[in-house]
Specification:
Blueprint (H helix, E strand, L loop, with lengths): L3 E7 L2 H16 L5 E6 L5 H7 L5 E4 L8 H6 L22 E5 L3 E3 L13 E4 L7 E8 L3 H14 L6 H8 L3 H4 L11 E2 L2 H4 L1 H7 L5 E3 L10 E3 L4 E2 L6 H24 L10 E3 L15 H8 L11 H13 L3
Helix pairs in contact: 1-9
Length: 324
């Protein structure tokens, strides 16, 4: 087993599917590092079976919730209360060096060189560059660091209610101590940069190695046409559309066939792949009211009703294979 690993976290089935796409992208760019995923009880048994096809190791951990969820409620992102669970990544002391990556990231060029960096190396956050973004970071597993982080969370909480605030409090000298701990933006490019600073994106975008689908709208909530390889509907700039379509192509090529082969489709209830035999203009895209959207985002599927395995299997058979 490699002494170095890429690590991610899935707290529900949707993020587990995102993690599979991430793992596929890492293998596609040629990494031979160990692929490790932390999961919680909210990931279904059927999806765990699929995860075994993409990750070298799966480890079940307890859910850690934010000590101050009111902050996240004010940000209208209550689902981030579970992100402190990623702190368990420091307990993986069987590895000498790890790179943690959120499940909503996609690798488009090899990034193995990041294992040469030291803890804690990360990209400045686009919203407040004196803080680092915790979607991608290099770290060294340590039981002591894990214990210290848990103690700080219990004692001081997190200034943003999630893992990023806590980690920036703990590694408080990141912005001033050593510039070598600052990673280039190409290792954690958020889609917002494609319109907030378009000239820079046009100049440096070809160098991007990791795309981070930061925010509440994830690729798996978009409707995709597998025939045209285009999103059916999308509000945003062409560059953001391009990257979401890259995610979907990885999903269609590498993840969906495994899910379909194992007859595991219930957890794809919030995803829509159009019939490849129909033109995109004739496709009816998936819609949902606000309450159901929020339920999907928090991993709360109606498995006994509209989102039952039988219903989703029937819908996917009709849309993917053109069955009536």
């Amino acid at each position: 087993m490699s002494s170095e690993a890429f690590v991610t976290l899935a707290t529900n089935d949707n993020y587990a599917i995102g993690a599979m796409v991430l793992a596929s992208s890492l293998r596609k760019v040629g990494t031979q590092k160990h692929l490790f995923i932390l999961i919680t009880d909210n990931v279904s048994d059927k999806i765990r079976e699929v995860l075994n096809k993409f990750f070298d190791t799966i480890q079940l951990v307890n859910l850690l919730k934010s000590p101050d969820p009111k902050i996240l409620e004010a940000l209208k992102r209550p689902e981030l209360s579970v992100t402190l669970t990623k702190l368990y990544c420091w307990k993986l002391t069987q590895f000498t060096k790890c790179i943690f990556m959120d499940a909503d990231t996609l690798v488009v060029q090899n990034i193995d060189e990041l294992f040469e960096r030291q803890e804690l190396s990360a990209v400045p956050d686009i919203g407040w560059p004196d803080c680092f973004n915790s979607g991608v970071f290099v770290y060294q597993p340590s039981e002591q660091t894990f214990n210290n982080l848990i103690e700080m969370a219990a004692r001081d909480g997190s200034f943003d209610g999630g893992d990023q605030g806590l980690l920036n409090q703990y590694f408080s000298d990141w912005s001033t101590k050593d510039i070598d701990h600052h990673l280039s933006f190409i290792y954690n490019m958020t889609l917002a940069s494609t319109y907030s600073y378009l000239p820079a994106f046009k100049r440096f975008g070809k160098n991007v190695k990791v795309i981070h689908f930061l925010g509440s709208l994830k690729p798996w909530y978009c409707s995709y046409n597998a025939s045209t390889k285009k999103l059916n509907t999308f509000i945003g700039n062409d560059h953001a559309r391009e990257f979401i379509e890259k995610w979907w192509q990885m999903m269609v090529d590498n993840v969906h066939p495994v899910i379909e082969q194992l007859n595991i489709v219930g957890s794809m209830s919030s995803m829509a792949i159009s019939n490849p035999n129909q033109p995109s203009s004739s496709i009816t895209t998936t819609t949902a009211d606000d309450d159901r959207y929020q339920a999907w985002q928090q991993g709360q599927m109606d498995y006994l009703g509209a989102d039952s395995y039988d219903n989703i299997q029937k819908r996917l058979d009709q849309s993917i294979h053109g069955q009536q």
